[in-house]
Design a protein that fits this description.
- With 432 residues, this protein is α/β, with parallel strands linked by helices.
- The chain has 2 domains: 1-125 and 178-248 and 346-401, FAD/NAD(P)-binding domain; 143-177 and 252-343 and 403-432, D-Amino Acid Oxidase, Chain A, domain 2 (2-Layer Sandwich), CATH 3.30.9.10.
- Helix content is 37%, strand content 23%.
- The protein has helices spanning 7-11, 37-48, 65-68, 82-89, 91-115, 133-149, 158-165, 184-198, 266-271, 309-324, 368-384, 405-414, 416-430; strands at residues 24-33, 53-56, 72-73, 126-130, 153-157, 172-176, 180-181, 201-203, 210-214, 217-221, 225-234, 252-261, 278-281, 288-291, 297-301, 333-343, 350-355, 358-362.
- A hairpin with a 5-residue loop joins strand 14 and strand 15 (297-301).
- Helix 2 runs parallel beside helix 11 (368-384) and helix 5 crosses helix 11.
- It is globular, with a radius of gyration of 21 Å.
- It starts with 6 loop residues before the first helix and ends with a helix.
- The model has no long low-confidence stretch (mean pLDDT 93).
- Pfam families: DAO (PF01266).
- It comes from Paraburkholderia unamae.
- Residues 29-380 form the FAD dependent oxidoreductase domain.
Length: 432
């Protein structure tokens, strides 16, 4: 990863530590492969269960998707409504899964407070702006079902959303009051600091190259080291390597970019997201943005073709800003950076038992900041025997590879023009 393109690193107030490279041989109870948000949360949970833990990170902490994302803490499914989740998973598991999603922000904010993580966390909520009448009906379903579940949500009609957002282009939407946003890189660094202070042994620039069985234990090999453990938890997600046969075909890597504007002045901030919430709209060609600690707006995007990516990405995001917030007509972009997240077609995170005492957990399809906080501990408790498969929010499966994986990966990279077209058709025929 190119740190010079990493905006969150530049503005982070959290201490950035240097962790050693694994060399030689170690013995531990559990190895966690992947030092992102999922892996760090899992390691902290294993320590709390009384185990010894080694975390292996292939790069530097915060250099992959965990530290490069938009930093929105969202207590809502990537696609489904709460009731649909119960239909897909069954009543008991679905209710448990919905409960995890709803509770994730509070648990994350508790961790931030516990370790005194300086990640600029803002706890003013998250809004979903509905771009068409059809999307508004769907948004109303989300709001009503989360309200019935007991979540702290609010319905926003056209005028209410316009006042909260500073844009008149949406017919309405809803808000999760218990959500927020933060600097994800600083969060990673703070969680790493907290994990190490609790007793986790953390190694950077130590990619797993192989996992091999050694009697009743596992040996995880890196380029110049090896760890022996009774259990292994793989939480590598989008940057999963070739250390386990076929694992990379269980997920789809999705390349995205982000753009930060120049800082808004005080007058502009009074008219655009004056309450400092995060916001995402319902277009398939997603528009999502929030302020950072410097008063810049941060937004995400994706290309179909990645030539001249920085210039084209900045132009595309600023065009969206001008359409959504006409009062920002003169605002300019200032930063561009990229990252890769992991997705699956049903957008439900995975718990896969690859072999005895060897689990894979993760794949959040764009909801990882909040979900990693609860998913990592779930997987940790399962691996350590503190919970059973029946306690899990989703079925624990063997390795689940994506059918026609190569085609699915190519389609994920080519789907954005189709998304833009369907957004335009829906807006034209359904009406805003």
């Amino acid at each position: 990863m190119n740190e010079t393109r990493h905006h969150w690193l530049k503005i982070s107030k959290e201490v950035t530590a240097d962790y050693p490279v694994l060399s030689g041989e170690l013995t531990t109870d559990y190895v966690v492969i992947g030092g992102g948000l999922s892996g760090l949360n899992a390691a902290i949970e294993l320590i709390r269960l009384g185990a010894s833990v080694v975390v292996l990170e292939q790069d530097r902490i915060g250099q992959a998707a965990s530290g490069r994302n938009n930093g929105q803490v969202i207590p809502h499914h990537s696609k489904a409504s709460p009731r649909e989740m119960e239909q897909w998973l069954g009543a008991a598991r679905g209710e448990r899964y919905n409960g995890l999603v709803a509770s994730a922000p509070a648990k994350l904010f508790e961790l931030i407070d516990h370790y005194d993580i300086r990640c600029d966390s803002v706890r003013n909520g998250w809004m979903q702006a509905c771009h068409s009448r059809q999307a508004l009906d769907r948004g109303r379903t989300f709001y009503e079902q989360w309200k019935a579940f007991g979540a702290r949500v609010e319905w926003l009609d056209r005028d209410a959303l316009a006042a909260r957002m500073g844009s008149v282009m949406y017919p309405g939407g809803w808000k999760a009051l218990h959500a927020g946003h933060l600097n994800p890189y600083a969060l990673c660094c703070g969680l790493a600091r907290g994990a190490v202070s609790d007793g986790v042994r953390l190694y950077e620039n130590s990619p797993a190259t192989a996992i091999v069985r050694d009697g009743s234990r596992w040996r995880v090999r890196t380029p110049v080291g090896e760890v022996s453990a009774k259990g292994v938890l793989v939480m590598t997600n989008a940057l999963t390597g070739d250390f386990w046969p076929g694992l990379r075909r269980a997920l789809i890597p999705v390349r995205i970019y982000q753009v930060a504007t120049e800082p808004l002045n005080e007058a502009q901030r009074r008219t655009v997201l004056p309450g400092n919430e995060g916001v995402s709209d319902t277009r398939k060609d997603l528009f999502a943005c929030r302020y950072d600690s410097e008063g810049r707006l941060e937004a995400i995007g994706a290309h179909t073709l990645w030539h001249d990516a920085a210039a084209r990405g900045q132009a595309a995001v600023m065009a969206k800003f001008r359409a959504v917030f006409p009062q920002l007509a003169g605002l300019k972009s200032a930063e561009y950076w990229e990252g890769t997240l992991a997705a699956v077609p049903d957008r439900i995170p995975r718990l896969m038992r690859l072999a005895p005492n060897l689990l894979f957990a993760g794949v959040y399809s764009g909801r990882g900041v909040a979900m990693s906080t609860v998913w990592g501990p779930c997987a940790a408790r399962l691996l350590a025997g503190a919970a059973t498969e029946a306690d899990m929010p989703v079925p624990v499966t063997p390795l689940r590879q994506i059918h026609s994986h190569g085609v699915a990966v190519r389609m994920a990279g080519l789907i954005h023009p189709w998304h833009r077209l369907t957004d335009k058709v829906e807006a034209a025929f359904a009406g805003r």
